[in-house]
């Protein structure tokens, strides 16, 4: 159901990760992509959340 794409980004002293998740819209039934930039420890929580 979810497409998982994770890229590591480094900006200065902070290490960030960009995660892209494909989710199905409950209204139209179409798939859309949700992107978020976060700390690497939070990626699994983001991808497992509905």
Question: What is the spatial order of strands in the main beta sheet?
Answer: 1-2-3
* Overall 3D form: elongated
Rg over CA atoms, rounded to whole Å, is 12 Å
- The secondary-structure class comes to mainly beta
The number of E-state strands comes to: 3
How would you sum up the major sheet?
3 strands, antiparallel
The rounded distance between the terminal residues' Cα atoms is: 11 Å
**Unreliable runs:** none
Overall residue-averaged pLDDT value: 83
Helix percentage: 10-25%
Percent of residues in beta strands? over 45%
| Number of contiguous helices | 1
Q: Please write the string of helix (H) and strand (E) elements.
A: EEEH
What does this structure look like?
This protein has 50 residues and is mainly β. Helices cover 12% and strands 54% of the residues. It contains 1 helix and 3 strands. The chain has a 3-stranded antiparallel β-sheet. The longest helix has 6 residues, at 43-48. The model has no long low-confidence stretch (mean pLDDT 83).
Topology:
Layout: E1 4-11, E2 14-24, E3 31-38, H1 43-48
Antiparallel strand pairs: 1-2, 2-3
In short:
Helix content is 12%, strand content 54%.
Structure characteristics:
50 residues, mainly beta
């Amino acid at each position: 159901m979810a497409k998982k794409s994770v890229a590591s980004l480094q900006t200065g002293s902070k290490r960030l990760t960009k995660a892209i998740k494909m989710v199905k819209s409950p209204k139209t039934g179409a798939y859309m992509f949700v992107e978020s930039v976060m700390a690497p420890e939070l990626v699994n929580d983001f991808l497992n959340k509905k």
